[in-house]
Design a protein that fits this description.
By secondary structure, the chain is an alpha+beta fold. It has 13 helices and 22 strands. Strands 1, 2, 6, 7, 8, 9, 21 and 22 form an eight-stranded mixed β-sheet that branches. An eight-stranded mixed β-sheet has the order 4-5-3-13-14-15-12-17. The chain has a three-stranded antiparallel β-sheet with strand order 10-19-20. The mean pLDDT is 90.
Length: 452
Amino acid sequence: MINGSYYTQVTIIGGGIIGAALLFMLSRYSDIESVTLFEKYDKPASLNSSAKANSQTLHIGDIETNYDLPKSQKVSASSSMVANFITHFGYEGTVGFRGTKMVLAVGSEEIERLRERHERFQALFPYLELWDAQTLSEIEPLLMKERKEPVLALGAKDRITTVDYGRLSETFIDLAAKEKCSVDLNFNTEVTAISKKWGKYLIHTNRGEFLSDMVIVNAGAHSLLLAHEMGYGRHYAMLPIGGSFYFADRALLDSKVYTMQNPKLPFAVVHADPDLTADWKSRFGPTAFAMPKLERYHDIEIRNLFEMLSLDRSVLEVYMDLMKDEEIREYILRNFAHELPGIGSSYFIKEAQKIIPSLRSDDIYYAQGYGGMRPQIIDKKSKRLLLGEAKIDSGEGIIFNMTPSPGASSCLGNAFEDTKRICKRLGKTLYKQKIKKELCDEKEYCYLSRSQ
């Protein structure tokens, strides 16, 4: 203790997959002596990292057609660390699952775009294969039943495609607690404020005050609120996007099937996934619609809502630009209709039929209790929507991370980046060769090492 406050070298705020991965990285791959984790709920990963709140997908950048080549290189290097962890530490079949995945192009225009993408990305993802209609009818017959349009798919077999990020979070925390580093876990502990004192950071919680040399805030949308309260990141605002899913009553597909991203749409397109929480029944989604929330199934204080939205002229101009575009406007209205009780399936079925043409509206039902929030960051200076992770590094020992998709897939890559910053500031050692041996191959490690 220092002056009556508990002391730790590094504090992590948020016990979702991002915070848990950082805790694991610090405890196993550095000589940091003490780390404290704060999580306001009674267990880790109870919000967006829960398997019911996301698509359970390990995003590599190979079939995600909204990623350009540089982003795919970065995502591939980071997410491969998760795949390597699952294999190296023996969690295949419990945390991560192998299967087939593909992106499906429907119609001549999409097929042409997919062929061009395959050529450009082939060096990065040499394992990807093009599958024509005949091959698809053998791999996933329902993709072709009643199909009238020409199709082509780009996919791969026997890859780690599915991850239970909730269980992965718990696994990271359990393993961290077994390392030599002193790990202090504080659940049911809400951080109410952060201030500077005695050259350190004073973390105010509902269970007392804690001192720390460095603080990493991995609290989803709350990260931006805490940053604003400390005077950082005022040029960022947030557009809170909620997502929901629909279930089929049985397992229709064994593969993860994504569809081609419309380059004009800033949100994820609908895909179909075997759901690990529901006996691998097929789950379709996500929808995407604006919600005045930070957490899908919890209310938010009005003052926090207005702080988060930061509704000045630059933010409103971003909203207006989105709504001016006819395709984006129709997409937003269509997704709103998907949420209508009782009749949403009759609207959503058109999205799902792009994947399985023979599907009917009474074959699917709204997945009650599934879905989460994917807060999107708005840069008020450039007046644009940021579609990737956002990081506010104060340069003074406190970092705020906001990680919409594919944050979970990149959790170990993000943790690696933050651990480098932490070790540099505190004069500690990062065990790079151990990371390389356990989590990376040569190509992945080299890319990550030069990324900062």
